[in-house]
Give the backbone structure.
Amino acid sequence: MLALYGRHGLAVRSASVEDLERVHREAAAAVAELCRRNGAMWVKAGQFFSCRPDVLPPAYIHALQALQNDAAAVSYARIEPVLERAWGSRWRDRFREFSEIPAATASIAQVHRAVLQDGREVAVKVRLPGVVELFEQDARVFRLMALLMAPLFRELDFVQITEQLLEMTSVELDFRNEAENMRRFSRIPHPPRIRVAALVAELSGPNVLVSEWQPGYRLRDYLDAHPEKAADLLTLLFTSYLQQVTRIGVYQADPHPGNFIVSDDGDISILDLGTLGRLTPDEVRNYSRLLYGLMGFEGSVDIGQLFIDAGFVGGNPDTLRELAQYVLSDRMKRNDFGLAMSDLLEKFRENRVRIPDSYIGIARVLITLGGFLMTYNVPFDWTPPERREAGQALSG
């Protein structure tokens, strides 16, 4: 924890940069192991903060990212009673095949592959037994920790961040919310090659969610094996999210690599709709102008005023403009959009600028996706989708 204090002004002055980085790495490994050992809500918290470079130093982000794909599987003997409660004792009659070996395991659920009697291949997502009770216990611990840590990190609103995590997890625990999210998200006019799995509503409920199986490969695994495909696939993915945020106001809010499946045809399936970000029409308009203003697509507008219009509180337009220009000018020249967004959020916190909750969700998504672009050295065309489409129509 000493190194984390250091990031926010409480570091021991005698420590060298190398010593501080070593302490960061050791502390990060210990935090990741603590989350892994406690399981459930702690793993979920680790995954949440692994996508929050606005909160944690890089060593912690790197250590916690390992929690995204290494959750321990729960034995089938513990899963079967959940299926019996959902579908009755003769539930197997609904399936031609049902694999007792999980295809994937996460912090609050695991997925089993199955084939319905009509031949459809499906993914059966089952909430882990006892996870609701564990969440209720851990939530009390997390709220207490947030209150204790808040005075030490005045640049960060730990109570606000913790409540965001707890609210997100509470919603995800009831799969009826995800079922509704799937219906809503599937109605969005996605770009070609973006897929959303179809819900099998008659078999879905609060503890079990059944959807069309999406064949393919995890995004990171596919890109590591086919780096020449990175520009095409990541441009497709980023364009999709940019459209979700700046045109529709509904976006998948958990974009870690395990939630994207690449098919043999080069399509991308977006999985795990337990949490959707939702923006009001005013937020869509203000955030669109802000994002494109930062990218230089809003003419001679005042960037500082755009931040204020978007709900940022605690700074005057001159301060906000100067901070944005200071951070973005260098980062954007090198196409480090994820780092630019992360650094900008940190500067705002250091200057006591209150960031709207809805913007935190957008920033988390764009920081994560920007990290993909940087990892695979993919430049991105920031031209707004509607202008790009108009240009393509004229050239056609």
